[in-house]
Every structure is written in structure tokens, then in C-alpha cells.
Design a protein that fits this description.
This protein is an all-alpha fold and 393 residues long. It has 18 helices and no strands. The radius of gyration is 20 Å and the shape is globular. 48% of the residues are buried. It comes from Ideonella oryzae.
């Protein structure tokens, strides 16, 4: 990418990326050990773990529309983002006070509420810091910093457990250490100047929805279809285990996925700015379709390694460039649009995982084949529904 491209990156993009980095270091330190701690140390059942994880996924998307509407109604970005980050940070105090099953369950669910509340205002804020020619690069850089935290957090947790040993006191120490970067992230965020949006004071939820552009609403349909194809990464980890990877090696595969995402995110953002956001979103769908089709037949370790590396590239496209695309389609009500998008795909993830789980019980290849088919349908739907302005971007 050119020096001129790097020059167009607003310094506050890096600051917001640092906030996400610190938050992810904190959260991923905890989530890397949460399942084991919840079931072995606290003594919860695996069935309860599944229920809590499902509730956590739902809570992460439940407040998206509300947060986006409130942010667009007031025109404020910063203080809604601060509220979301501060809520997630405050939830971690529960871990410092108690390690009971009830406390851990409450923590896991309400911590994700903070994520759902901060996302739309922050993404709208991020979009306002870049013009259309560099927006994809800005979102890509932010995602790279965000996922860097997801790489470092588990490594810090691994280091603490290796150094101090696996015990209840070590986990308590880990939770205290994780709390520190979460607090720092909120402090850093308070020092970044706000970028207010257009105020829509008299706009209720119903009118707010009707004011969203038809182009954005058409984009929701292929997004929902693709979300049905987009099942949990856990199924790909199961495939790796079936091919012959041990537990420790699957952790390394997860690290490979995150690392590839970190490296690829700025580059796919730059590519989206060059070739157009429509093509980069379609590329993400196509890459995912190719990966799932490959997984139908993959039977060797080297194939799985390549799949995880390419999956990181897909994730970089899907997680950052879809938000940049939405910002192009919805110039005034960006927080609402991101909130609606996150809510729609978040709701679809639940049946996606249920379908994948049911098909996996029949045959793992059936789950991947169904995902490939749905991805192709999503591509066709996108080509039919995509707005003309996006096609010429």
C-alpha cells in the first residue's frame, strides 16, 4: 500500500484500535480459560456451559439496534461507546468478587451486553474518521489491532498458568491481571475527541427504521442468508481434531487463524478501497464457500493448516469490510444501520449453529456442504439485491 494511503489514516483510528486491542487482551485472557474454569473449578455441567454461551451470543446482539438508534438520535458516538466499554469492564468485577457458578454465569452474559452496546456507535465513529476512498483501510487497521489483542490475551493466560500452575488462586490472579487493560482501555477512550453525527432528536424507533436507505435494507437479505452458512469456528476445530490434531495443536491452529487475520485486515481494506466494497464483500462470501467446500473433502493435516490460514483472511474481510460497506450505503444513520445489521446476523447465528450441529450428527461433510450451498445462495442474492451505487463504487 502506498505512503499516500497510510497518510490518509486518521490518528484517532489508531487510538480506537488501541482501545479495542486493550479490551481484547483483557477479554481473551478470560475467555481462553473460561470454559475449563467454569466446568472443572466451579463445577458447572457442560450443558449449563452450552446454555450460558448461547445466552452470551444472544446478549451480544440484543442491544445493537437500540444502541445505534440512541446514538443516531443524539448524534453522539463517544459517550455511548464509553458506556459499552465501561459496562463490560465493570462486569469483570464480578470475577474478582466471586467464582461461584451463578456469578460466572451472570458475568458471561452481561459482559457481552457491553459489547453489543458499544459496537454500533464505535463503528459509526470510525466511519466518520475516513472518507470513502480510505474507509476500508481504516476498518481493516482497526480490525488488525483488535485481533492482535485476541492473539496476545490467550498467550498471557497461557504464560500465567504455566508459571503459577493451574489452581484456583492462579485463576484469581489471572482475572485481576485481565482487569487492568480493560480499565486502561476506558481511560484511553475518554481522551479521544468525539466525532458527532447528524442529530435526529424527534426520530422514534419506527420512523428511524423507515428513514434507513432502501440500499441498506436490500443488503440485509443476503447478509441474513450468509449468516445461516456462517457456523461456529468450533466445528472447524472439531474437523481438525478428527483429522488428527491434538488439543494443544488445535490451540496453535486458532492462533494461526488470528495471526492471519491481523496481517490480512489492513490489506483487504486497502484492496476494498481500490476495487470497490461490493467486490470485496462478494470475495468474502466466495472465499468462505470455497473453504467449506474444501472441508467436505479435506483429510490431511496440511489441508487443515491452509484452511485455518485462509479462514483468517475471510474473517478479516467479513468483520471489517461489511461495516465499511454499510457506512457507504448509510451516510447519516450509520450507528443504526450497523446495529440493525449486527442484530440480524446475530439472530441468524443461532439457527445456523443448530442446523450445523444437527447435520454434523449425521455426517460432518453434510454440515460443510450445506454451508457451501447457503454461501452460493447468498452470493446470488447479493448480486440480485445489491444497490447500483455500490456496484459502481
Amino acid at each position: 500500500m502506498s505512503h499516500r494511503q497510510r497518510q490518509r489514516l486518521h490518528p484517532d483510528v489508531l487510538k480506537l484500535g488501541m482501545v479495542s486491542f486493550l479490551t481484547d487482551v483483557s477479554s481473551e485472557m478470560i475467555f481462553a480459560v473460561f470454559a475449563v474454569f467454569f466446568t472443572t473449578v466451579a463445577g458447572a455441567s457442560s450443558a449449563l456451559l452450552g446454555l450460558i454461551e448461547g445466552l452470551a451470543d444472544f446478549s451480544a446482539s440484543s442491544l445493537n439496534y437500540l444502541a445505534g438508534w440512541m446514538s443516531d438520535r443524539s448524534g453522539r458516538r463517544k459517550w455511548f461507546a464509553i458506556a459499552g466499554y465501561a459496562f463490560s469492564t465493570s462486569a469483570k468485577i464480578i470475577l474478582l468478587a466471586s467464582s461461584s457458578i451463578a456469578a460466572l454465569s451472570v458475568f458471561r452474559v452481561i459482559e457481552r451486553l457491553g459489547k453489543g452496546f458499544r459496537g454500533p456507535p464505535r463503528d459509526a465513529w470510525l466511519a466518520s474518521l475516513s472518507d470513502k476512498k480510505s474507509r476500508g483501510f481504516a476498518f481493516g487497521v482497526h480490525k488488525a489491532l483488535d485481533k492482535t489483542g485476541a492473539v496476545i490475551g490467550p498467550l498471557v493466560a497461557y504464560g500465567l498458568l504455566s508459571w503459577l500452575g493451574e489452581s484456583a488462586s492462579t485463576y484469581a490472579t489471572l482475572f485481576w491481571v485481565a482487569f487492568v487493560p480493560a480499565v486502561i482501555s476506558v481511560l484511553v477512550l475518554t481522551r479521544i475527541p468525539d466525532q458527532p453525527g447528524v442529530v435526529h432528536e424527534r426520530e422514534g424507533v419506527r420512523r428511524n427504521w423507515h428513514q434507513l436507505t432502501p440500499a441498506f435494507k436490500r443488503f440485509l437479505l443476503p447478509s441474513a442468508v450468509f449468516a445461516l452458512a456462517y457456523f461456529s469456528l468450533g466445528f472447524i476445530l472439531l474437523k481438525a481434531h478428527a483429522v488428527g490434531f491434538g488439543m494443544t495443536e488445535t490451540v496453535l491452529l486458532y492462533a494461526l487463524f488470528n495471526t492471519t487475520c491481523v496481517v490480512a485486515a489492513p490489506w483487504v481494506g486497502w484492496l476494498g478501497d481500490r476495487i470497490g466494497r461490493t467486490r470485496i464483500v462478494l470475495l468474502g462470501y466466495a472465499v468462505y464457500a470455497g473453504l467449506t467446500l474444501w472441508l467436505v473433502f479435506a483429510s490431511s493435516r496440511w489441508e487443515i493448516v491452509v484452511v485455518f490460514a485462509v479462514y483468517g483472511i475471510f474473517y478479516a474481510i467479513d468483520e471489517s469490510q461489511s461495516k465499511a460497506f454499510i457506512a457507504d450505503l448509510e451516510p447519516e444513520r450509520r450507528a443504526t444501520a450497523v446495529g440493525v445489521y449486527n442484530f440480524v446476523v446475530g439472530v441468524m447465528y443461532l439457527p445456523a449453529s443448530l442446523i450445523a450441529g444437527a447435520l454434523w450428527a449425521v455426517a460432518p461433510s453434510a454440515a460443510f456442504a450445506a454451508s457451501t450451498l447457503l454461501s452460493v445462495v447468498a452470493i446470488g442474492t447479493f448480486l440480485l439485491m445489491v444497490p447500483e451505487p455500490a456496484q459502481s463504487a
